[in-house]
Amino acid sequence: MFLIHLRPLPAASLAAAATILAAAPSAQCGETDAGAATPGLPPIAAEDAPHAGEGGVLTLGECIAAALRHNLPLEAERLRVESAARDVTIAKSTFDPATAVQGAYSDRRSPVASSELDGASQPENKSSQISTSLEKRLATGATISLDADVLDRSETNSSFARLNPEYNSRVSLNLRQPLLKGSGIGFNRSEIKLAELGVDESHLSLEQRANDVLLAVETAYWRLAAVAQAVAIRKRAVALANLIEEEATERLKVELGTPLDVLEAQAALAERQEILLLAQKAERDARDLLWREMGVLGRAEPAFSAVQALPAAALPEGGIEGSYRRAAAAAPETLLADKAVQAREIQLMQAAKNKQPELDVGVRSGLLGRDGSQGRAAEALAERDGYFWEATLEFRIPWGLRAERARFEQAEKALAIEKLNADQARLELLAGIRSAWRDFELAQKRVSAAALTLELNQRRFEEQKAKRASGQSTMRELLEAQADMEDAELRLLEARVDLTNAEAEIARREGSMADRHGVSIAP
User: Fold this and answer.
1) Which of 72, 203, 280, 354 has the fewest CB atoms below 10 angstroms from its CB?
2) How far apart are the first and last CA of the chain?
3) pLDDT (tens digit, 9 = 90+) per residue, 198-213?
4) 3-state secondary structure 279-310
């Protein structure tokens, strides 16, 4: 992950490497590549930017909080939640009342009368009409409307007209109810249910994204902590190599050493300086990775002097069985798969209903008024002398219902596919949890083994120092012991990071990253 192992340099380049690396500038641990916010990226207000705490320590909690506020993919998921909520409003609007107003005017004059009954040599008729209606769809699938004529005036030049101008008034109540296709509360509210499932899915997608972001931030944070510690180890290695080089030079002066010993010590020092530079670059890369996962790269990169030390890993409760039970109940992946199955079940119900023929019953009833003035025509409605009513029954069926049957079969297949996908999601969840637990158990063993290896190599290095002081070992043997000790330190560090990351991966698989960090995922 972040280990940079020592490697022998060609003998011909040892002195040159020492000269070049000694002249190279050394990066500082607190160095930051960022300055002002990068143009083109959305800015972050100073009061909303992440900050280091007491002693300049940037905590994991502060990084998590900043990621929840500023991670761009997470913000996109929040917008999808808001958009999904609008789908519910759209679906419910189907049952909102609607008002309509219609107006018409006509003027017609015939060139000649068609008969004596026209009452004029050139029959002429004018009419003006304004009507209004209030309509609402009911959850049963019925449509109910109230219609009224605001103005219905006609004028003619016929000598036979008893009222001229003539005013008509009308108020009617209309009801149309499907009995087969399109009927039923469950069917007519199914689009609302699908929209509500879409909201649930958007919340789960947000939670899933948040789990991934929290894992990425935590992993990046501990990577930065580990690389910073690796830089400290490399600095100690450079300091130790420098002391060995000085000792070799002094021994040569008093004729207790050889020029080859000095050259070997200089080469070892140059190699460790090179590896230190590489480790410092890795530290800056790790810092940028953390800023990117937090969503503050080039926007509001915090200044800090240190990060938290690696914590001791805690064994998740209940073992692998407990992890799987928690994941089955809370993991967004499986819950999303269940929501998809529910949506397909609703769509299958819709397809089954649409496979039925249309059979609609309608009822229409109203009052009529007529007079020579608008006011008297309206008053005539109250007398109920004029009225009308009618009942209709309409049946319609496409021959063979081929399209409807095909759509029903498609809905059946889609439901079967989603059920298989849900089963596959659970299989993948189980496989992922098992793998994460194996990584955790392996990392535990690696930590124990690496700790023993480090203790062994520390003792060997001290023995080689003592032997070298008494002239019982060579400079190469001392340098090899030093390299083995450094590598053992870094292997232990790497194993501890892998152990912490494996614990975090188990939490992500369980869907409990928010609980792990004590945060809530708000839309």
Assistant:
1) 72
2) 35
3) 999 999 999 999 999 9
4) HHHHHHHHHHHHHHHHCCCCCCCCCCCEECCC
